[in-house]
Every structure is written in C-alpha cells, then in structure tokens.
Amino acid sequence: MRKNKPGLNxxxxxxxxxxxxxxxAIITLSVxxxxxxxxxxxxxxxxxxxxxxxxxxxxxxxxxxxPDVVNGVLSDYAMAGKGRMLFIDQSGCVQADxxxxxxxxxxxxxxxxxxxxxxxxxxxxxxKQTLSPTAITKDNAYLNRSHGTFWAGxxxxxxxxxxxxxxxxxxxxxxxxxxxxVTSVAIWLSVFSLVFxxxxxxxxxxxxxxxxxxxxxxxxxxxxMSGGDFSTRVDxxxxxxxxxxxxxxxxxxxxxxxxxxxxxxxVSDASHELKTPLASMKILSESLLSQPDAxxxxxxxxxxxxxxxxxxxxxxxxDLLTLVKTDKGADTLILGSVDLSKLIRKITGTVAPLARSxxxxxxxxxxxxxxxxxxxxxxxxxxxxxxxxxxYSPENTVVKVTLSxxxxxxxxxxxxxxxxxxxxxxxxxxxxxYRVDKGRSRQAGGxxxxxxxxxQIVEQHGGNIDVKSVLSEGTTFTITLPLSx
Length: 485
Known about the structure:
Layout: H1 8-58, H2 67-80, E1 84-89, E2 94-97, H3 110-116, E3 122-130, E4 149-161, E5 164-174, H4 176-226, H5 240-290, H6 296-327, E6 336-339, H7 340-350, H8 352-357, E7 361-366, E8 370-373, H9 375-391, E9 398-406, E10 409-415, H10 423-426, H11 438-443, H12 450-460, E11 464-470, E12 474-482
Parallel strand pairs: 7-9
Antiparallel strand pairs: 1-2, 1-5, 3-4, 4-5, 6-8, 9-10, 10-12, 11-12
Helix pairs in contact: 1-2, 1-4, 5-6, 6-12, 7-9, 9-12
C-alpha cells in the first residue's frame, strides 16, 4: 500500500523550523560558552592575584615556618578569596590548611602536580564537590543558591624563595555563582528561542501554506484539463513567479481550448463533407434500384451523377490526407532547387483551357527566380490560387500573376477581378472547410480545404501569405517565400 507523502508546505515549514532551531541552539551555546569563559577568566585573574599576594606575604616566615603565623596569613587571604587556602611543601605534604583537616596529608590533583613538578607557576582546574563544613562554609558569597553540590575552582601558585621553589599555594573557592548565572542566561535564551520558534513556525506554515495553495490550484486546474475541460483558468493575481506561471498556464489552456474546438469543428465539417456525397449516392442508387425498368438515358444520367459524387468524395479525402501531411510540419518537405518562374509558367499553361472556356485572360510577369523548396507542394499552392482566381472570376476579365524579388524573398501575387470578399470572410478564409459562398463553392468543386492547405505549405517553407479583397472588385493574394533556407 502506497504511503501518503507529506505536502510541500509541511516539508518547507519543518525544514525552515529545523534551521531556525539549529541556529538558535548554536547562538545559545555560543553565548553561554563565551559568558562562562569570560567570567571564569575574570575570577581566575582575581584569585591568581590573591595567591601571588599571599605568596609574597609568606616569604618572611618561610625560614621559621611557624604554623600559627602561616595559618594566620593563609586565613586572611582565604577570606579575601572567599575560599580555603592550603600550603603544600615541595614533597607534596600539606603544611597548613585554613580548615585544619588536611594537615600532614598528601592530596593530589593535576593542578597541584603541574606546579610542584615545575612545569608551570600557576594552574587552575574545576571540580564538582559536595557541600559540607569540612569543604567550604555554607555562607560563602560564591555559592549563591547551591544546596547539595557546587562547582569549585582549584587555583595553584608556586612559592619561590631565593630562586628556589619551596612549595605551592592552593586556593579552593566556589565558582557556583558563575555556573548559576550562566545557566540562568541559558534558560532565558532557551525560553526566548522557544517563543521565537513558535512565532516563526506560525508565520512559516502560514506563508508556506499560501505558497502551496497556488500549486494546489494549478493541480486542480490540471486535473480538470485532464478530464477534458479546456475552459479552465487560474487566477493570475499571484506573486511574481506564480503570476507568470498562471499567465503561461492560461495561455496554454486557451490554445488547447481553441485547438479542441477547432478539432471538434473539423471533425464535424469533415463528417458533413463526407456524408453529403454518400447521401447523394445512396439516394441515386436507391432510385435506380426502385426503377428496374427505367430507360437507359435515366440510368446514364444517374450513374453520371454518382460518378461526380465519387469524384467529389475522392477530392475531399485527398485534401484531408494532404492536411494530415502538412500538419506534421516542415520535416515532411522534400527540399530541392526549384525554378519558381518556370514552375508558375507551367501552371498557367495547365489552367489555360479553363481560362479560355470562360474567356478569361491569364497574364504572367516574372523575373527568373530559383529557391530551395518542395516543388510538388509549391505547385499545389500556386495551382490552387490561380485555379480559384479563374473559377471565381466572371467572363471577359483578367487574372494577373506576377513574380518578383524583394529583400532576399520571392514575392508572388495572384490578382483577379472576381466577386471579392467581405472583411468578415477575410478573417476566416484560411479556416478548414470555410466557404465564402457555400453553394457556389460546391458547384465549382471546392472542398473548403484548399486555402488552409496553401497557408500551411507556405508557412512550412518559412514564408507568409497575405490577402486583400474588395467586394465585387476582386481579390489579391500575396505570397512571400525566402530565396534561401
């Protein structure tokens, strides 16, 4: 069973919150570490000065080492350092203890050992101790709120007389006040971080939800489009990137809707064009079948009509197949060198019988022009245009064809003095199955696909087609084709 994955808003929100939490944790750790080191360093300087002064005060009494005098000096400085003072001789034995509990013993700590060995003059270390009368007094100012245990600093300093080390002074003093103050700062920073994280989380989820809301709108719109509803549109009033995406989506949707409408219209028109000759053939054939004794002349007339409808059906099918090929794009062209002036002269000669039958004059003016193109397709283009010009022109008129060159292009114009077209017709003449005069077009043998095919072939050659027309005065088609591709 497929598990549901978290949404983008959840992923964005959680990721951002984790980053914020990590940053706040690093800041809290850095601040508390810095404060701890800062205050411990100040305390170390103070206690080291106390030990130095104590060592200087002991020097006059080092020869006699009167216990009462030494202990008195140590007690004074122990009170100044708010801790416990010991004097340990060079052998490591305690000679004086302000608490009088370690006299004669040989305590060990790294701080004591490092000074007795002569590696350094001063040392410090921090140890956790249990609060008791034999460790430190409960009314020590450095204890703050400590109850059972406390942190203490062991500060050591060498006692040197006449260049010879006589022992080491040890000051054990609480640093619990620093620990508790830094802990208090850490707690306040944590509380602040928690509140800040909650606020940031709310803002983050609100913003990410709004961002992903636009994506969800697109998903719903795409779902509708996949169901065939190409009229779907999305709101373009979004933030910059989503607004641009919405505009692109709506443009795509509109094009798909137009394409779908065109497809439906095309299928409808094609069905109608194919159905009409079939219906006519069925009526004619049924009429013949219902009249077995019909005269030969009637049979010949009906069979001639059926043959015409077959030709018409074949013409529609051929044009549909041509459209399918042209819809595939320029890749279907078979390019070669085409003598356009010779090709058009050949076409005017082919349509000459039709023109003479209507007493129409076809004039052709040209300059020698050669270009790269598909000769068969170009022949189809100009045959269609010149043939249409003759079919839709009245008798005793002129169809003028010209071929010239301009700015690296071949320019072909086909001008007639025919029925012309209205502005509304000009907007639709390149649509499939569109006819200006449906009755007259069918009578002339048209399928309504010719100009659509012409336009596609011209555009596949990198050219364009333009048309100008005035009702009852005539129409001019202008085709521009690049001389080189």
